[in-house]
Design a protein that fits this description.
With 389 residues, this protein is α/β, with parallel strands linked by helices. The protein is built from eleven helices and twelve strands. It is elongated, with a radius of gyration of 24 Å.
């Protein structure tokens, strides 16, 4: 079955690229009549397969090549969408007889699709770097001794080839502007290969600038695996844990901390760390014994077990992972997938007294763009019942 699916994926991808390439070649021949197929097609094949070349031949450390490969993935999506729309328009024009068939129309529409794709990529690249702040106001009948609590939630930094110190500084600035009591990082702090991260000490210094009286807590995500050192550390987490400790971040690996009286934070290991099979405790096993006034925050990278969290008595679940699809039409896909998983791909979720917030993430993975989604810091204001003693 796996082999069949892989073969089908290759056939579909190849077919779509032949369609895109033929349309672009028509435009190129319109602009440069002397252009030959034996020149165009090898160059286009290099573009279409650049991301595969990077990963198959382990060329991730050549950052410009890796970035070009990631942009090619996004370009493929938008070229296909814009060319498909242009073909539909051409068919409608031909069927309705609103204009006589013109061989130049196809080339001109292909050129327009190419220009629109370039504009989308440029917009997406700049938009991804603009860190937004999303505010939520929640209430709880619990009484933990204070009238309210402000939590800043960040997730999916994906520190690596695309996200470095400058990006981290923008995230930290957005967090500090919010003035949180507590900061939670819901996984995917790294992008898997720590060797791709430049200026680790500088990034640690930026994270130490976070101002939160009750501390900074994190759980790992599926990308938080130090794949470059698995021969030395089969868990893939030791260097990451050391980095976070140096950065002033408390990493919770199926553990619970109590930053204040009657306030608990539990951080789960990830369900599917990339390339590893590691057991983790159930939410019921992790939930600490709590009184009727205790408030439990659960950090769980993937928003897949909200019902179990509700059954275990968690008051607030904080997750990321989905990126809200990162760029259109990915947001439509993640919406469907996580709705079917009895959760949500983004925003607020509630079941009884249990509430959850899923953030779109502060960084990004793969194509370094965002379209129809934001890089964000989620700021959550929780209002409690009358303050108890």
């Amino acid at each position: 079955m796996w082999l069949f699916r892989s073969a089908l994926t290759v056939l579909v991808y190849t077919g779509l690229n032949l369609y895109i390439g033929a349309r672009i070649f028509g435009f190129v021949r319109f602009v440069l009549p002397g252009c030959k197929g034996f020149v165009f097609w090898p160059l286009y094949a290099l573009f279409a397969c650049s991301f595969l070349l990077v990963f198959v031949f382990r060329l991730e450390h050549i950052i410009p090549l890796r970035q070009a490969g990631m942009y090619s993935l996004a370009a493929f999506v938008y070229l296909f969408l814009t060319l498909a729309v242009s073909d539909i328009v051409r068919v409608v024009i031909r069927i309705t007889g609103r204009a006589a068939p013109d061989p130049r129309l196809s080339a001109l529409m292909s050129g327009a699709a190419l220009c629109l794709t370039l504009l989308i990529l440029v917009y997406g690249a700049f938009h991804a770097r603009d860190i937004k702040t999303r505010h939520y106001s929640l209430s709880s009948d619990k009484t933990i001794g204070v009238p309210g609590l402000r939590v800043a939630l960040i997730s999916d930094l994906h520190l690596g080839a695309a996200v470095g110190r400058k990006w981290t500084a923008r995230i930290v600035n957005a967090v500090n502007r919010a003035g949180p009591d507590l900061v939670c990082i819901a996984g995917d702090i790294f992008d898997g290969d720590l060797e791709l991260v430049r200026d680790m000490e500088g990034i640690a210094a930026e994270l130490r600038r976070i101002k939160a009286p009750l501390g900074v807590y994190a759980c790992p995500g599926n990308h938080d695996v130090d794949r470059s050192r698995l021969n030395e550390d089969p868990t893939g987490i030791q260097r990451i844990a050391a980095f976070l400790k140096e950065s002033g971040v408390i990493l919770l690996l199926d553990e619970t901390a109590s930053p204040a009286k009657r306030l608990y934070i539990t951080g789960r290991r990830d369900a599917r760390p990339i390339g590893l099979r590691q057991p983790r405790k159930t939410i019921a096993e992790l939930a600490p014994p709590s009184g009727p006034r205790d408030f439990l925050i659960l950090l769980d990278h993937q928003p897949l077990e909200f019902i179990q969290a509700s059954a275990a008595g968690a008051d607030l679940v904080l997750s990321g992972h989905t990126h809200k699809g990162q760029f259109f039409p990915g947001n439509l896909i993640t919406r469907r997938v996580f709705k079917n998983s009895a959760g949500t791909h983004y925003g607020h979720w509630q079941n009884g007294v249990t509430q959850a917030i899923v953030t779109s993430g502060a960084g990004l993975w793969g194509p370094p763009i965002r379209v129809a989604t934001d890089s964000e810091v989620a700021v959550i204001d929780i209002r409690f019942g009358e303050a108890g003693s």
